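[#protein-structures] MJ: dropping FAD-binding oxidoreductase here for a structure pass
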Amino acid sequence: MTVTMATLDGPEAQIDDESLEELRMTIRGDVFTPEDSEYSSIRPAYNLMHPGDPALVVRPSGTADVVGAVSFARTNRLLMAVRGGGHSIAGLSSIDGGLLLDLARMNGVDVDPEARTVRVQGGALIGDLDHETQAFALVAPSGIVSDTGVAGLTLGGGEGWLRRKYGMAVDNLLSAQVVGADGQVRTASADSNPDLFWALRGGGGNFGVVTSFTFQCHPVGPTVAFAGVFHPVEDAENVYRQFRDWAQTVPDEISALIGCTTLPSSEHTPPEIHDTPFVLTAAVYSGEPEGACGSSNRSATSAARWSTSPAPCPSWGCRAPSTSSSDAERSAATGRRPTSRS
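AK: finished. structure tokens for FAD-binding oxidoreductase:
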């Protein structure tokens, strides 16, 4: 079978059976074409505006497989996209007619509790990261939603629930292992390839495929406080002003967000907001437990629902318990609608 693929140069490339078999001999992970039944098992893109239709999928098991896939794409001048968690708002983790490098199998997380560091593979999700670090009462500052990929989030900066206290994900990045377009594996850190390290911290995914990240961790948890409020969109001007004023007064242990969105009906959200534009304000307090309730954003008015409750750190984002605001938080935080944060 010949696979027709999009190329960097414009004209399509014809990848024959012999070339595909050579690729499969190189890769210890998976190699799929649309003709394979396993093709549908690839990690889906979160942004349904950019589902993608790759002509070839490589799901590597490790760095060597990534080198093999990148080398294959370079030799054949193929368009290639890399998918970590698949949450790219702009659709950068999807591709039509090209090669999709799906890192879902590379989701390992290794914590060094004495050094307070964690090494995370490029296909791990925030939930994977939090689950392992919380075994040692540690957290590596990352994002807001548990099923976001660590890689894409970090390479874009990495705003999360600890940013006011410990900074963004890139502020806590110690090093990264990167496979360049030339197929070479490099370590980027303050001491090794510092220019590449500078570029990776917020410069996006254009500098190579990051197969692992090493982060600094901080002692947080195992319990934090979460608060979420839904407001009628008609009150947006008042809510935004009050949120702005409130955010200037709270301690660094509180990180918050505000955004406008619309959600479909769901058992996890109150009926008042179903299919109706609303404003969401939400905050996480990661300081001492006794200070949580006094630091909430309860001052905002006309709330459709209020809740503040303890939440285990691995539950931040899409699994915040007993707040009933998880779906709203996920939508507001991941870019399905515009949001702003403080």
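MJ: nice. The longest strand covers residues 223-232.
AK: one more thing. Helices lie at 17-26, 63-75, 126-133, 150-155, 163-166, 194-200, 236-247, 326-334.
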